[in-house]
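All the exercises in this workshop are built on plain-text protein records. Sequence and backbone structure share a record, each on its own labelled line. The question running through the whole workshop is how a given chain folds. The record below serves as our worked example for the rest of this section.
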Amino acid sequence: MTNLITEQPLSEPYYALEGQVGSFGLVRPSLDFSEPLTRDRTLRYRLNAVYQNGGYFRDFNQEIERYFIAPVISWDISDRANLTVEASYTNDERPFDRGLVALGDKVADIPFDRVLGELDDRFTQDELNLEYRFEYQISDDWTFRNGFRFTKQDSRFTAAEPEGGLDEDTGILSRWWSDNRSDSERYNLQANVIGKVKTGSVEHTLLFGIDFLHLNEDFDNYFDFTNAPPINIFNPVYGVATIPSTENLPDQFFFDNRITNLGLFLQDQITLLDNLKLLVGGRFDFVDQSNRFRSSFGDDSITEQSNSAFTPRIGIVYQPIDPLSLYASFSQSFVPNSGITVDGDLLPPERGTQYEVGIRGELFDGQLTANLAAFHITKGNVSATDLNNPNFSVAIGEVISQGIELDILGEISPGWNIIASYAHTDAEITRDNSPDEGNQLAGVPRNSGSLWTTYQIQSGDLRGLGAGIGLFFASQREGDRSNSFTVPGYLRTDASLFYRRDNWNVALNFRNLFNVDYIESADSRIRISPGTPFTVVGSISITF
């Protein structure tokens, strides 16, 4: 499910139009309108809409095409009550792309825009979200909140997928035909009460409530494991054959997955002293799951499981002096896994424990903030791609991730802003029923960071003119959890030029300014996503 946060209605009329054009045929117009619908401004609306065509650098014979629309209505029923109703619809069509492959212990040395499927491999998705949020202020100290969200998502891809059999001498890559469809419906209901009380000199902010989730997922997977033509990764020839119709794909797997999750939660934020706060909370989860697995090989089975857990959360913040805060936290997590094994079995829920300590400071009268934290996270039953059957999942026994993070954000001087981050992370598979035990987790660099800074002229004839530059780096990382190949580190440079004056905004954004080859992500030898090459996007917007 895509997590969308829509713009909320405004009390004053607001209208914005933006147009973007850029590399690889990108065209992206958008609008954002909002205004009150009644004289007393208690009823308001907002409408966002976007259309995109183009913008993908890989060498397919097709483009990305995307529509998005999101209307929102907000009604102040009274001084104490508000109801917001919103919807969003997304239609997304794009090339289906597994990316590059590994050769030996590194990424194959082939052009980053080369397609190893077929040029007409296609992915389509429709997503509908319907939501309401109700808030009622019971008193000056207590508030009731209730919300419901329904999400329906229908997806399909048809492709010649890399199968994993690569002849490293000839470059011949085996493939199979895939026609995979998934339909899901998600119902999420939540209600909570938040309020303030005092016990003597101690202040409490209490939060307690309930949430309910029901998820229906149906996967219809059609394959032909033997008759798709292979491809030479060094000299590809496309169109040797076309994917058969769905009914003529003989290897078929069907999964009907159901998850119901009831959660009860309670939290107390305690102000012990003006400079000392304690957070204590907990959550009870009760989960029922079932899956029906059918196949063209005669399988027809139903697997069910029920699980429950209590997960606590504790945190403390101490402020020895005004601009400095010291904090520590402990929390546990419990998350149902929706992945399915190749045998049709359900994965056990993921469980986690996290410890974190840190220091947060404000500099230059609060203009600049910095946060330094150390963390240790243990997770069990982590869902991961089945490397032998990439359309299915397995559960990794235990993963430990630990390290430090540094974040800096603020305005150094008028018009000069900075956002910087650095992370040192050690992520290891510490327990598993496979040879992967002791390996580094795929896709996690030991060192990564970013720096983005902009300056905008504040006065004179050039007021509103600005520029920005950003650096993004990641060190070498493992390409799969077997650690069979490595992904090299990289340093990418982005930049921007912009002019903001009155209600106009004109900008040129440059991504990967020096056109470096880098890998965005990888989780197996046949699923390696290359990063975007040098790209320019120009935009102009007006508000009125």
Observations:
- The chain has no helices and 29 strands.
- The radius of gyration is 26 Å.
- Residues 400 and 503 are 49 Å apart (CA to CA).
